[in-house]
Each structure stands twice: as structure tokens, then as C-alpha cells.
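Hi R.,

Quick one: here's the Neprosin PEP catalytic domain-containing protein sequence you asked about.
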Amino acid sequence: MINQMVVTFVLGILIIPAIVINGEFSDTHDAKIDLLLKKLNKPAVKSIKSPYGGIIDCVHMKNHPIYDHPLFKNHTIQMKPSGDHDKWNNDTLNIDDESIVTQLWTINGKCPQNTIPIRRTTREDILRAESIESYGKKYPNNIPRRKPANSTNEIHEYATLRVNGIFRGAEAVINVWKPYVQMPREFSLAQMWLEAGPPSNLNTIEFGWQVYPGRYGDDNARFFVYWTADGYRSGCYNLDCPGFVPVNQAYVLGEPIGHDPRTGNWWLKLNHHVFIGYWPSILFNHLRNGATDITWGGEITNYRVNLQHTMTNMGSGGFASEGYERASYFRKLKIYDECNTWKPIHDRVPEYFITQESCYNIRYAYETDWGDYFFYGGPGRNLYCT
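And here's the predicted structure, written out as C-alpha cells:
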């Protein structure tokens, strides 16, 4: 296990071959990559080397990526939620016993005042994507529709818990692992989804940790965010397109989410006191009024190489029945309801979703110390999962 974090929702390498004629294709392709890199990598006031090999650029707020979005040319960036944001805090959750999430790049320096840290995108990052156009998007770009249990024909597989209603936020404590991922184009993640709208126009805000060699070039567990406002036809990871507005100097990307009832913005918050950033409400036509579904759990992609199920692990790689210290978990699950009140989820009859129970599963329960919780995960291919 790598670490453990409090997530508070307050509110492989594939390069497409081509025939090169007189270098024209290569020149055009390189020019497109250079243009994308120039767009993504803003001028840095200061650059800091990450122990993982990347570069963190400290970008002045006047060059914030949000200003690349046509809707936000004149946007006034919020540094914290409007009004009484203290009421988003769940005082019943004691975080003294939790490990505060840190990022190791900060041991090599800090970003100056009025700047934000952004992971520098490299040419290699873009080349690992299926295409330049698909860089930063979920692949394949499909809606994770709820299929019948034990469906064997899906690329995306899940072990999740879901509640329905009208919500302003949610939270959980998630432990972080480093699962085995069989091939670069596959990933393994644990996250929360906040959703609203019909499948064809689905609005989602997503946050969690993932191991995704095809995106990041290694097998480290990394924090990520994702959003879409139109059923995954657009939207992106992290800052690969303008949408998420980071404001914190200590986190390159980060932890939890809250809905600011005055502005409608969705805030990402860590350990109840660190505001990471927000998604402006104008990005969404459904989520701006609240989420109708909240989902917690694990997801993997399975490309069935040689017609066999992937060996990619979900969570720790252990089934839910293996329990504490062996299986992954989400605990202290709560929702922030339409009356701006923290509530446990067990009164709402949570809905399970398991794609293939012989590959990955989930086990939900309630107890006083952990509140509503579940263990989840699995090894992928095994004697009963082929």
C-alpha cells in the first residue's frame, strides 16, 4: 500500500504506423505535437524537478489554463468557495488518524506566490496516446453504461456502489495501492463519480487515483481528475483541456469535491481544509444544479489479448473477502444532500454494480468506526475468470 487519503466531495504505448512520403507526414505530425505542447505548457515562473522524473512548472495566475476556454476569457478565478464554506466540513469525520496526502515534488521546492503548479506535458506523453486528437480523453470515448452483471463483452469493468438522489457533495476515505496493469493501454483506478443528465448528454466530475502506463509512462499510482459535459464526447483528464481551475500551490492535482451553492461551482477539497480547485458551473447544463448519482469504486480496462481476460488488478489485487490490509476499501461514505446536510448512505439503499464477479467484486457493510464502507477489487484473470 502506498498511502491513504481522505477524499471529500463537498459539494500501451501505441504509435500509429504510417507511410512517410518525403517526410511530409512526419513534418506535419511533429508540427501538430509542437502546437499542442505550446498550448498545454504555459510560460513558467519557476520549474521544479519531480523525484519521479517529470517537471513541475509554476505558472502565473494570469496565464492560467482556464483562460484558453472561450467561455472563460474574462473569468474571475475564485481562490475559495463563496459564503460559509465551513458548513461543508463534516465534523463527524476525524482526520487525525489519516495520513495527510503529500506530493514528493515539493521536497525540491515550492511555487512562488500567485502561481500554480502544473505537470509539464512532454512529447513522449502525447506519443503514447492513440492519436494527437485523443490525447487527454478517455479511451475509448464511451459512456460507462450500466450493463447486466457478469457481462463478458465489455472493455470497461467495474466494482462500484451507487446512490441516487439530489446531492451537493460526497466524501470517502480511500486507501491507495499500486496494482499490476498488464499492458500500457489498460488502466486500473479507484474514484468517485458525480453525475447528472441523460447518457447522451451526461455531465460527470470524476476524481481518484489510477495506474495508467499508457498515459503517464510508468506504473505509479497518480491522482487525477476528469470531467465531461456531453457524454464523453469532450472533456479531459487533469489540465489537458481548459475546464478544471486549480488554485492550490502545494498540489499539482488532487483530492475531493464540493458544490458552491452561490456560484454553482464544484470544488475539489482535501482533508476538509485544503481547497485544490473547482469546475465552473457554466461548464455543465445538468451538474450546475446538483448531482443525481454518486458512485464510488474501482474500474479497469480489459482488452482481452489472445481472447483471454486481462491480468490487470483492481485495487490491491485481492478480492473483497480478503478484508482489511489485503483488499482495497472506501470507508466513511457520506453524501451532502439538497438541504446542505451530511448524511450516511445506508438509508438510501445503495446499488451494487459488478461487471464480472469472478474477476472483481465488492462487499458493503456498516459499523460505528468506519461508517458505511466497502471492500472491493480482484486479480483479474484466474481459474474462474477467463
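The longest strand covers residues 156-176.

Cheers,
M.
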